[in-house]
Every structure is written in C-alpha cells, then in structure tokens.
Amino acid sequence: MKIVVLGGGLSPERDVSLKSASLIANALLSKGHEVALVDLYDGIENDRPAESFFRRGTVNPYSYTIPETEPDLEEIIRQHGGRRQWVGPRVIELCQYADRVFLGLHGSHGENGQVQALLDAYDVKYTGCGYLGCAIAMDKTLSKALVAGAGIPTAKWISGKYEEMTPEKIKSEIGIPCVIKPIGCGSSCGVSIVKTEEEFAPALEWAASYKQSILVEEFLKGREVTIGVVGHRALPITEIIPHEGFYDYKNKYQDGLTTHVCPAQLDPADYKKCQELAVRIFDILRMSQYGRIDMIYDEANHDFWFIEANNLPGMTNTSLLPEAAKAEGIAYEDLCEKIVMSCGRDEIEGL
Ligand SMILES: Nc1ncnc2c1ncn2[C@@H]1O[C@H](COP(=O)(O)OP(=O)(O)O)[C@@H](O)[C@H]1O
Ligand SMILES: [Mg+2]
User: What is the pTM of this model?
Assistant: First the structure.
C-alpha cells in the first residue's frame, strides 16, 4: 500500500511531530509498505514525479532528534520566504496519489480539525479522529464544559482573552496555586503552574504568546495518569512521574526525565473506573479511531479528574500510547499498521 506520512507543519509541536512521523514511516516501511514522509508546511519539490517520493524496502531511513527548546516558527517562516500558507507545495497532490495518509502531526492545524476537513474535501483517507472530534478535543475549554456537563470531575476553570485574565480575577475566582494554559496547544507549550502572585504576569504572557485565548484552572493534587484509547477500548493505564517539576515540554521529550509506569499501580476497582471513564470521555468528545485522555487521580477519594484529551497523541516508539499498546503485547510496527489499515473506520481491526 502507498502511504503518505504527514509530519511537521507550522505548529509549536513541529519538532515533536517530525519525530513521530519519522518513526511511523520507518514502522510502515518495515511492514512492506511504500512510504513518503512529507512535511505539511515544507511540501515537496516541483520538478519530480509523485512516485519518486515513495521509498520501499529500506530499513529505518528516517530519524529526527527533538531539540530541548520549542521551534522558532517566525524564523522558519522567514526561511520560506515569508510564506504563511501552512499547506506546502504539492502536499494535497501527493496525498491524493497515495492510498492513505497517516497523520503524524501534532498541535494546531493537525489537531484542530483543519487538516482533517481539508483532506475530507479531497476525499483522502487519513488516520485518527474526524474534524469534529479534533475541533472539540483541541479546545480545552469546550472539552472541559462537555465533560463537566456529563458529571465527570474536571478542575474549576475560567477562560477568556489575555486582557480579561487579570491577576485579580484569577485570584478571586480560582485562587493560587493555579494552572495557566493557552487554549488550542499541546506538548505543554505555554503551560505554567503558578504558585505565587509574582508568577501571574509571566505565565499569562507566555500563554498568550501561543494563543490569545487563555484557560486558568485550579491546580489538582494527585497522581497523573494517561489512558490510550483505540477503537472504543482503553489500553493499560500509564502513571506519569516527572523527576522534577511538572510534565512540561522538556520532561516530555528529553530522555530519562520522567518515569512512566505502565500498567499503573492503582487500586483494581479504580483502575477499571478510570478506563471506563476514558472511553466515556472519548465518546463525549466525538473522538474516534485512537486518542489519549489525561487525568489526575485523587487516590483518597477514588476520583479521576479530567485534564484534557489528545486526538493525535505522540506516536514515537516510546510515546505513551505505543508504550501502553506494547504493555498489551502489541508491537509498535503492528500498531502503526493496524491504525492505517483501519483509516476512516471507528474501530481498529485487531486491536
Ligand atoms: N489542573 C491541573 N492541575 C495539576 N496539573 C496540571 C493541571 N493541568 C495541567 N497540569 C499539568 O500540566 C501538563 C500539561 O497540561 P495539559 O493540559 O495536558 O496540556 P498539553 O495539551 O500541553 O499536554 C499536564 O500533563 C499536567 O502535568
Ligand atoms: Mg496533556
């Protein structure tokens, strides 16, 4: 089968995505597919036939190392002659030429439903949730409202434009400590935990440097867990234990800074409750195919608090969802292949 793996794009998670996409491409090549890895933003050269971009039979040709800091998107735009159009030359043509597209994208256009709607318009088969589930899950406030509406615990929150989120308002409605995040990002980009009043201004400014809409929520104490969902089934739960601080960009992507415990060691009744809750949230948010739900476990009260949903979660071979699949005996290469073979379908055959 001819498969385009889309990665990169004009998103703060561009580097993370290039790593996911490289490893997905290697996995699909190892399964005998013809694979073209394409950067959504860069696109491909104009003077080569589509066929020439597909590789076959090579072993692990792709690799990418994520730098410690997030990419400078303005610099990347400058390097491309100031082009702000986020779909690069011939990307759609190559996607149409392939049998299907594996979305190795993370953040902004890749996860907010825009790429999905664009590919729908061109009748291209792609992996992951449809545009609606993406749009809902990527909006942290909207997804919290839907989850809270279904009676599932989520931290008390306020949201609005940068100018509206004054320290006075946050102090009176949420209090300290609190968590400040941009709405519509991932990989902890722009996320701060505020413990003192002096930290308000830099945290708000940092969040606003990503998106002008900001979410402020109560800080939840407890153990952090994440649950991969494939089809409508929960994978084993993973507990996330950063060695220092919280699960920020560096702790997520630099090796050895965070311990993952999978399957998480939870009370057995709570374990089951958590998996059921994850699938319920997945359905409430209109997600499909695969995704990951982040929660905080309040052990004393046997409660799970929804943090957020990821509709194109990290897909390197050591990312959380592939690691959870592995704990069930599903090899990374098989996981990637099964996902791409079930494109456009809600269930994933064999998972
Ligand atoms: N309300 C909260 N209470 C405690 N920690 C939180 C809260 N919200 C987020 N965090 C921490 O911040 C991290 C990133 O937040 P999250 O909403 O998952 O953003 P992202 O989409 O960038 O992953 C979480 O993995 C968790 O460690
Ligand atoms: Mg998260």
Answer: 0.95
**Main-chain dihedrals φ then ψ at residue 77, nearest 5 degrees:** -65, -45
DSSP string, 110-140: HHSSHHHHHHHHTT--BSS--HHHHHHHH-H
Ligand that lies nearest to the alpha carbon of residue 223, given by its number in the listed order: 1
Mutate to test the pocket of ligand 1, among 170, 210, 294 (most ligand atoms within 8 A of CB): 294
Task: Reply yes or no on whether the pLDDT at 348 is more than 90.
Answer: no
Judged on CB neighbours under 10 Å (0-12, 13-18, 19+), 46 is exposed
pLDDT at 212 over 90: no
62: number of Cβ within 10 Å: 20
Q: What is the pLDDT of residue 317?
A: 84
Answer whether residue 346 shows pLDDT above 90: no
- Quick one: residue 111, left, alpha or beta (phi over 0 = left, psi -120 to 50 = alpha)? alpha
Q: Which residue puts its alpha carbon closest to atom 26 of ligand 1?
A: 247
- Could you report the per-residue pLDDT of 239-296, keeping only the tens digit for each? 999 999 999 888 888 889 999 999 999 999 999 999 999 999 999 999 999 999 999 9
Say what the alpha-carbon torsion angle 300, 292, 112, 133 is, to the nearest 10 degrees.
-90
Q: Which ligand is nearest to the CA of 107?
A: 1
Pocket test for ligand 1, best of 154, 181, 218 (most atoms within 8 A of CB): 181
The answer to whether 315 touches 325, Cβ cutoff 8 Å, is no
* List of domains in the chain: 2-126 (3.40.50.20), 156-218 (3.30.1490.20), 223-341 (3.30.470.20)
Question: Per-residue pLDDT tens for 80-96?
Answer: 999 999 999 999 999 99
Q: In what order do the strands lie in the sheet with 157-161?
A: 157-161, 213-218, 178-182, 192-194
